[in-house]
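sorry to bug you again but im stuck and you know this stuff better than me. what follows is a protein written twice so to speak, once as letters and once as C-alpha cells for the fold. id like you to explain what the C-alpha cell line says about the fold, in plain words if possible. anything you notice is useful, everything is just below.
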Amino acid sequence: MKKILVLAALTGAGLTGSPGFAQNMPANPQQTPSAVPAPDQAPPQTAAPVQVKVGDTIYDPSGSPVGTIQTVQASTAALSTGTVTVTIPLSTITQGSKGPMIAQTRAEVEARAKPGAPPRQ
C-alpha cells in the first residue's frame, strides 16, 4: 500500500501546474504574442555579408573610408588602412550607403592593430 501512495503522491505532484512555468497567452486567442512571428511572416533578416574583391574600398558607418581590400581568402580579407594591414572576417562586412562597410572607423582599426591593444569584444 505504501508503494501505491508514494506513486500517487509523485504522480499528483507532476500534474499540478506551477506558476513559474505558465505560458503567457494573449487575452484574445486570435492574437499572437509579439515575440513570436505569425506563421505567414518571415523572420527578421540580419545583414548579409557583402562580396568584396581586391581593391574595394571599405567604409565605416558614417561613410568615411576605412581602407582598401588587399587580399581575399575563403572567410577573411586583408584590409589596409594605409598605416596598418589587418585581417577581418568577411562576415563583418555589410552593405553601407557608399559600399562595403565595417562597424569600426579607421582610427579604431589602427588602434586595435597596435601591439598590446585589447582584443575586440
